[in-house]
Specification:
heterodimer, A: about 575 residues, alpha/beta, Rossmann fold, 3 domains, six-stranded parallel β-sheet, 20 strands, about 35% helix, B: about 160 residues, alpha+beta, Alpha-Beta Plaits, four-stranded antiparallel β-sheet, 4 helices
Chain lengths: ~575, ~160
């Protein structure tokens, strides 16, 4: 049967199991949107294409499935770029469908033409420009396969107008065969045995787990592995939730705003076992001084991640799901080995935790942002999904919210894209309509995609937006305070709107919290309301995120307050 | 150190841009690059010559392997292989030096492919040492123009 390209595309998406997609129509997509109407494929129209990309990303992070977004040619496609780059940096599977001018017009500077395949080449795992209608089913199949397997990532499929309006037959290939792409890699058995040997020899081991734990769904294997070998665990921002946040072996996040305990442990260890992580600069600080006494084991599916930033002594390349379960199997019948030296190591690690736990001024009469997050963490259900924007709100969330389960924190880690949290929360909420989804936002970030209030209002989507409002671009302000003589250049948000009124104008409930004693009641009111809510929580304006490893310093060179002297000393380091 | 990397890729549009973008996006330089179809018309072979320390070359190769359209990557450097380059070179040839220039060309077993009252155009093939040496030798006479193919390389059987 002959079908139009648009119909072929919809059929192909359905055959990939797509239940929902996020998009924004436009001229060259009229054929698609016409076929979509009444097709049974759910489409959510966002109010900006960037939000469609972030929503697809949030959906993918919350579910583990491939997220789908769509935008028209030219400006629609370029508006997806930030969302695609976000997904690329954090290895999130999304398929971005873009409209394109008709094939005979490509290259002629047609109306709303942009070379989106060219523009996104460095920020995609792969991309396609479809030139023939009958190729559509195969290309969609390949795009989903590439996006979701191996180290996941975004795939762009560019769809010229005549490809969508042309006719073709639907035939879905049974399996995908791409000779240059063999994503499933089993770990080298010899290397795995060597890992176990290193663990037996190690006196001060630590596990450093990244987003790969979440992507591969190996939280349970990791827990088993860490407990059996009695190795403390720290995670990256993207790894939070991959290890229970209240477990005695858990050290909290490491890196620039990591805990004292995590950073001191890594710095003093003699064996760092990195699993599904990539030694990002926010984690390592000064690479020359990173874990100076440690041997480094690196388990990752991406060979190019090995020894990219840090020299790795013992790499194991492969799917960490397969590798961790093999390691656990190899140890199944072994007596756990650790000796007195290891016991004293754990004692030392605990001591760091007691010496300098995460702190803030709990006696302050002002609302401290950390307090709000602690209270939320306490009051909300166990399966709550938290998204964040980028900046102080993100770091305080990482520090003070206790994540216990995988896929409960969605945050733009690698790219650090402000405006991510709200649309990502929409994606997660559409996937899980019955769970509580909260975007912990700043007053700066929320204004980058605030137009999506129209989308949540339209669908009565119960996303909660908790704005920690300090009338500043807080993280940049913090750096200005610490390293630029408190010259607050372009960081003071003096003409913020009244967020409660903004919410109400969209038909969304708004709550204002401006007294510490009202925090609990306000949060409860937010959680109990059945529809979307915007909470405008007025927090201490000049609170800083500590501890902090200044850029270029080693992970053990943390600052704990903005006291002038220490700042000055560390400014020299910078 | 200079490395000669042989890469087989899908013979599709856009693949060269992906490979070139991989180098430029990381600040790695391509010294020469040549592309052509293989026996299988759906596959092209690229011969890329690049410079870098071991870490950079390792990254280059790993990143190349990550590209979906790349089928196989081999670093020929350190193995036994044959490499050749072809150059077309237009040399100024005045009355007094014409004979000497021709003699040099003969020694290099070059071909004279064009001649005019005051120039010769030669075709020289060989490995880079040879082509470089030729260029050095005729430079004093004056080189009007030079075109190089970039290197192609193939592994030896034994």
């Amino acid at each position: 049967m002959q079908m139009s390209g648009a119909e072929l595309l919809i059929q192909a998406l359905k055959d990939e199991g797509v239940q929902i997609m996020f998009g924004y129509p436009g001229g060259v997509l009229l054929d698609f949107y016409n076929a979509l109407f009444g097709s049974g494929l759910r489409h959510i129209m966002t109010r900006h294409e960037q939000a469609a990309a972030h929503a697809a990303d949030g959906y993918a992070r919350a579910t583990g499935k491939v997220g789908v977004c769509m935008a028209t040619s030219g400006p629609g496609a370029t508006n997806l770029v930030t969302g695609i780059a976000t997904a690329y940096m954090d290895s999130i599977p999304i398929v971005a469908l873009t409209g394109q001018v008709a094939t005979h017009m490509i290259g002629g500077d047609a109306f709303q033409e942009a070379d989106i395949v060219g523009i996104t080449r460095p920020i995609t795992k792969h991309s396609y420009l479809v030139t023939k209608t009958e190729d559509l089913p195969r290309i969609v199949r390949e795009a989903f396969y590439i996006a979701g397997t191996g180290r996941p990532g975004p795939v762009v499929v560019d769809l010229p107008k005549d490809v969508l309006s042309g006719k073709g037959k639907y035939s879905r290939p049974d399996k995908v065969e791409i000779r240059g792409y063999r994503p499933s890699v089993n770990g080298h058995k010899g290397q795995m045995k060597r890992v176990l040997t290193e663990i037996r020899k190690a006196k001060r081991p630590v596990i450093y787990a990244g987003g790969g734990i979440i992507i591969s769904g190996v939280a349970e294997e990791l827990l088993l592995f860490a407990e059996r070998n009695r190795i403390p665990v720290t995670t990256t921002l993207l790894g939070l939730g991959g290890f229970p946040g209240d477990h005695p072996l858990f050290l909290g996040m490491l890196g620039m705003h990591g805990t004292y305990q995590a950073n001191m442990t890594i710095h003093s260890s003699d064996l760092v076992i990195a699993i599904g992580a990539r030694f990002d600069d926010r984690v390592t600080g000064n690479v020359a001084k990173f874990a100076p006494e440690a041997k480094v084991v690196h388990i990752d599916i991406d060979p190019s991640a090995i020894s990219k930033n840090i020299a790795v002594h013992l790499p194991v390349v492969g799917d960490i799901r397969e590798i961790l379960s093999s390691l656990n199997n190899l140890q199944k019948d072994e007596e756990p080995v650790w000796n007195e030296i290891r016991e004293s190591w754990l004692e030392r690690v605990d001591q760091w935790g007691r010496e300098r736990p995460l702190e803030y001024d709990r006696t302050s009469s002002q609302i401290k942002p950390q307090y709000v997050i602690e209270r939320l963490s306490e009051l909300c259900p166990d399966d709550t999904i938290i998204t964040t924007e980028v900046g102080q709100n993100q770091m305080w969330t990482a520090q003070f919210f206790r994540f216990r389960h995988p896929r409960t924190l969605l945050s733009s880690g690698g790219l650090g894209a402000m405006g991510y949290g709200f649309p990502a929360a929409m994606g997660a909420q559409f996937a899980f309509p019955d769970r509580l989804v909260v975007d912990i936002a700043g007053d700066g970030s929320i204004q980058m995609n605030i137009q999506e209030l129209a989308t949540v209002a339209q669908h009565n989507l119960p996303v909660k937006i908790l704005i920690l409002n300090n009338c500043f671009l807080g993280m940049v302000r913090q750096w200005q305070e610490l390293f630029y003589e408190a010259r607050y250049s372009s960081t003071c948000l003096v003409s913020n709107p009244d967020f409660v009124k903004i919410a109400e104008a969209y038909g969304v409930k708004g709550i204002r919290i401006d007294r510490k004693e009202d925090v609990d009641a306000g949060l409860k009111e937010m959680m109990e309301h059945e529809g979307p809510v915007v909470v405008n929580c007025i927090v201490d304006r000049e609170e800083c995120v500590f501890p902090m490893v200044p850029a270029g310093a080693a992970t053990n060179e943390m600052m704990f307050s903005s006291k002038k002297k220490q700042a000055k000393k560390l400014r020299a380091v910078k | 150190m200079r490395h000669t990397i042989s890469v087989t890729v899908e013979n599709k549009f856009g693949v060269l841009a992906r490979v070139a973008g991989l180098f430029s996006g990381r600040g790695f330089n391509i010294e020469s690059l040549s592309v052509g179809e293989t026996l299988d018309p759906s596959v092209s072979r690229m011969t890329i010559v690049t410079r870098g320390d071991d870490r950079i070359i390792e990254q280059v190769i790993k990143q190349l392997r990550k590209l979906i359209d790349v089928i196989k990557v081999s670093d020929l450097t350190g193995t036994s292989f044959v490499e050749r380059e072809l150059i077309l070179i237009k040399v100024k040839a005045k009355e007094s030096s014409r004979a000497e220039i021709l003699r040099i060309n003969e020694i290099f077993r070059g071909k004279t492919v064009d001649v005019s009252p005051d120039t010769y155009t030669f075709l020289i093939t060989g490995d880079q040492d040879k082509t470089d040496a030729f260029v050095r030798l005729v430079k004093p006479f004056g080189i009007k123009e030079i075109v190089r193919t970039g290197k192609v390389a193939i592994a030896r059987e034994i």
